[in-house]
Design goal:
Number of strands: 10
Largest sheet: 6 strands, parallel
Radius of gyration: 26 Å
CATH superfamily of the domain at 75-324: NagB/RpiA/CoA transferase-like
Shape: elongated
Helix content: 40-55%
Structural class: alpha/beta
Strand order of the largest sheet: 1-10-7-4-2-3
């Protein structure tokens, strides 16, 4: 499976379709309709849900063990939050400082206002380098702009070097989880995938499966003209990018090809190296239950005189793509503090039940439900804000204290103000009219109590989808007001001197 098919699959998901789904009425479903259909299917797949939950069990144990090693985990969260909050609120000056320091060592910084500009910048760099082969480490920002599809359409071969991303590329699927891309895939499925695509012998050993991928990759690193990475952080003080990984593939992707391109969202900047001293261990603990990620590397530009390795050219593409619009909204601004650790996904009961593909977008789970409506449009993606129980587990898990579940409430409020359909707007107005008039509310309650049984049998359009997975309770015999008045009269009678 080529990376063109892989990224086209993500593009089709974000257009409201499943990968490889035929055209037709179902393919043309809106993102909201597709979410409901896919969620229904995944919830019914008990085996899939059990496997994902089991995969997360080990993460919970490791994460809690590492959190216990902190002298004060909550104080560390405060420090991490302050570092990111401060950087977000100085984004303009810190980005310029980063660019000046990075270019002082021979690197180049490119500014991309949107996905199209970012793709074009990278394509121009590849053409200038006369590139033929590209190796790429895990970079969710590239998934966001559908980079792989754009590159292959122009004739460039692209191979994902991260093991999870490589598996997903072979499967023709987007990442299931932005930290653990193939967490839903069983070992035997990976073994068959490697048999079919790489001609290897069957095995269920994780070590052997890893070595199969490594053996396949080694020559690709050598042959690649260009390596493309993301970055976890940009350090303004030193003009360096920080990359965190567990496999070492990003180091090879950055060091061996003659050109290194890093595609990074503008919100990744931090003020100085001291900030990394708290953010790197927090990222490792919250993201993967580790004290520190195996490889933490800082890159400050192309190979200098006297250095034995590194690229001849290094470019950083800074992507806005609606992030500045979030920055301009004081209520939503702190969502830019996200360090993409995935902790909120791992604790979210909705994610664990509906799975990663159901969200239909690059960033899944609670934080994805917060930022996707801003990145892709509230009218089409406001349903994601409703994909939450508002239990607050996401906010409790966030290492940089983003108030995620309150952001979901804010998005719901904003969606109600910009309801995409006349029926929804009419429904909101009717509810306000009824709820603000006690006499009308009493009449509506009487009608509801006497028609609930009929609605259960007929399932009219307004409640049909809701009733597809729920049962209407039996209607009460009387209203709360009536029951309260009766109780008050009974209490009055029981008092000395009480009257009927």
């Amino acid at each position: 499976m080529t990376s063109l098919q892989h990224t086209a699959a993500l593009a089709s998901l974000e257009a409201g379709k499943k990968p490889d789904e035929p055209h037709g009425p179902a393919a043309a479903a809106s993102p909201k309709r597709r979410f409901l259909l896919d969620a229904t299917a995944h919830v019914a797949d008990v085996g899939h849900r059990s496997f994902v939950r089991s995969a997360l069990t080990g993460y919970y144990k490791s994460r809690d063990a590492q959190k216990a090693r902190y002298r004060d985990w909550e104080h560390a969260r405060d420090a991490a939050s302050l570092a990111k909050w401060s950087a977000v609120n100085q984004l303009d000056t810190l980005l310029e400082q980063f660019a000046d320091n990075f270019e002082a060592r021979g690197g180049r910084v490119h500014w991309a206002a949107n996905a199209e500009e970012a793709r074009q910048i990278i394509l121009d760099l590849l053409r200038k380098a006369n590139a033929k082969a590209i190796i790429k480490s895990k970079c969710m920002t590239s998934e966001e702009i559908h980079l792989n599809a754009a590159l292959e359409e122009e004739g460039f071969g692209v191979v994902e070097s991260d093991l999870g991303e490589f598996i997903q590329q072979l499967r023709g699927e987007p990442p299931y989880h932005f930290v653990f891309p193939c967490m839903h895939v069983r070992r035997e499925e990976i073994s068959r995938l490697f048999q079919d695509n790489l001609g290897t012998a069957p095995t269920d050993s994780p070590e052997e499966l890893t070595m199969i991928a490594r053996d396949h990759m080694r020559q690709l690193y050598v042959d690649a003209d260009v390596g493309i990475t993301g970055a976890n952080f940009l350090v303004a003080e030193t003009g360096q990018i920080s990359i965190t990984e567990n496999e070492g593939n990003a180091r090879l992707t950055a060091a061996l090809p003659r050109m290194h391109i890093a595609l990074v969202g503008i919100e990744k900047v931090v003020a100085n190296l001291d900030d990394l001293s708290v953010l790197l261990p927090m990222l490792a603990t919250a993201g993967a239950g580790q004290p520190m990620t195996c490889y933490n590397t800082l890159y400050g530009g192309p190979r200098q005189d006297g250095e034995c390795d590194g690229p001849e050219e290094m470019h950083v593409v800074l992507l806005d793509n609606h992030r500045s619009a979030i920055l301009a909204d004081p209520e939503q601004r702190d969502s830019l503090q996200c360090i993409r650790c995935g902790a909120c996904l791992n604790v979210c009961p909705i994610f664990k039940n509906v799975g990663g593909f159901t969200y239909g977008t690059t960033y899944q789970g609670p934080i994805g439900s917060v930022i996707t409506p801003h990145l892709r449009g509230l009218a089409d993606w406001n349903h994601l804000s409703g994909a939450s129980s508002l239990c607050g587990a996401c906010s409790d898990a966030c290492p940089v204290r983003i108030d995620i579940h309150h952001h979901l409430l804010h998005n719901r409020r904003n969606a109600a103000r910009t309801a995409p359909s006349r029926m929804e707007r009419l429904g909101h107005r009717l509810f306000v009219a009824v709820a603000s008039r006690p006499w009308l509310f009493r009449i509506a309650g009487w009608i509801a109590r006497h028609t609930m049984g009929l609605a259960r049998r007929l399932k009219p359009p307004l409640v049909r989808e809701w009733l597809a997975s729920r049962d209407l309770p039996s209607p009460p015999q009387e209203s709360f007001r009536s029951a309260w008045r009766r109780r008050q009269r009974s209490a009055t009678r029981s008092l000395p001197g009480g009257t009927a």
